[in-house]
Design brief:
single chain; 188 residues; mainly alpha; DNA polymerase, domain 1; three-stranded antiparallel sheet; 48% helix
């Protein structure tokens, strides 16, 4: 059962709900509400999730840095040897990871990587760094795949920020046409 503590502040009365149950005995869950009823509803929902072993503690995402996640991603997912992971491909993906760490900071937590930050990264790379749309698409694809792996395999309670932003349009494909002189040289 959650405990609810009434607090009197400058802006009025608030209610702090504290849950010490299961794996949250040492580090309890807590949240503050302006209405006691809202706190009771939240507490019962959280306790139900804990009982069903389905509670996703958002603090886990705050403990993992971008540096740690990318390191684990490259060690476990992007390993050399498979047909789509040639050494040059892995080097390019590592360069994408470096660009992400340079802009966002390697010590940023995964919980802080938001759609707003990623759209700012996209715009900065396109406008200030003057890189191609293809490069930015590759960088966004890398971070998107890493977040998908973090959710599905590492069971981190994060949302993929790339799903909610627009990616740059891909460049038009090349149209190769022979000039007249090249055609004459070709026929001779």
């Amino acid at each position: 059962m959650a405990s609810i503590v009434k607090k009197q502040g400058k802006t009025g009365v608030s209610y702090q709900v504290i849950i010490r149950k299961g794996r949250f005995r040492e580090k309890p869950l807590s949240r503050t509400f302006s209405l006691k009823k809202d706190g009771e509803v939240w507490a019962s929902e959280q306790e139900r999730l804990i009982d069903m072993k389905q509670h996703q503690d958002p603090r886990l995402a705050e403990m993992v840095t971008l540096e740690q996640a990318l390191t684990k991603y490259f060690l476990t997912i992007e390993t050399p040897g498979t047909y789509y992971n040639e050494p040059t491909t892995i080097d390019r993906k590592r360069a994408c990871g470096s660009a992400l760490k340079q802009y966002l900071g390697s010590d940023i937590s995964l919980a802080e990587v938001t759609p707003r930050r990623m759209s700012e990264f996209r715009d900065h790379r396109l406008n200030s760094d003057k890189v191609s749309a293809s490069t930015v698409r590759q960088e966004l694809s890398l971070i998107s795949h890493m977040f998908t792996i973090a959710v599905n395999e590492w069971e981190l309670p994060v949302n993929n920020p790339i799903e909610r932003i627009a990616r740059p349009k891909p460049a038009e494909g090349r149209i190769l046409a022979l000039t007249e002189s090249q055609a004459k040289d070709y026929h001779q």
